[in-house]
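Predict the holo structure. Ligand: fe (ii) ion.
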Amino acid sequence: MEKNLYIKDISPGDTVDATFVVEQPSLMSGKKGKYITCTLSDATGSLPCKIWGTGKDEQVIGVYEALTAGMVYRCYGNASVFRGTMELNINDGVGYLCTPVMTEHLVPEDYVYSPADIEENKKELFALVRSIARTPLQHFVFVALETYPLFFEVPAARYKHHAYIGGLAEHSLEVARMAVAMADGVSGVDMDRDMVLAGAILHDIGKAASFEKQGFAFISLPAYSLMGHTTLGIQMVSRLQGERRLPEEDYAHLLHILQSHHGEYAEVRPHSAEAWAVHFGDNASATLHEVDEDLRETTPGEVMKGRHSGGLVFRFERPDKASLPQEKEYQGTLF
Ligand SMILES: [Fe+2]
Ligand SMILES: [Fe+2]
């Protein structure tokens, strides 16, 4: 089946009959019986979806068991808005979800969503690693990235932020940029720039061992929810330490940054300025992307509870530059 409709072109009220990647299917129980929630995606974005079927629990359970995350399915349903977010509801079209569309009939570029410039991000990350002046630490970071090459491919999360191919590397790069800007930009605070960079780049390395490729998507592995990416990251860094031997102080500081990078929500709060800088960078990168994703689904002047950020967002209108009066440079009394 040829790709005839993209997610970006769907509006509320549309009847949709097109092929999408099905991700994260979950079997739910509601007042009216069983239903499935999942995310549909293609090269242009993603859309929440609910599969209701035609009224029988057994039918929904059968479809749930047949669905393989990451595969492409023909999705026939209606787009509508639920709690401020557009979603696709599938009733009669449930039968199409029992068999995926064969991958050899599909063009990958139609289905893989990634706003990240993977090659550019890689280049900038490598330049930052090269700028780590202490060579054992610099080599340690390079070896970590070489040992876990999925770092450059996997998403940073399942739903919330950077949930696209190349998302982890993009997020880690943003954290490194911001954390190092804090190290350079705060007057009178003497920070270990090398450690800030190493910690920022590796803070989420555990996510590189949390996903595997299936079809057109990355599927999270059980370890991701059973242990969490912080524990996985610490395991990975400890394993590398067995081979690389960083000086004890650097190794301890790096482990501390990984362990504390979730700030107030971490098992231990950050104990050093470097660990706080990585935490603030992490928080800023995640929050700004979540709010931005929510604002994309909001019309100007509308307050909405965002599905990514979990908080209220409001889309302010920006004045049209062309209609602004041209004013001369400000002549004040201060300068
Ligand atoms: Fe994290
Ligand atoms: Fe992170």
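The chain has two domains: 7-110, 118-291. The first helix runs from residue 57 to 66.
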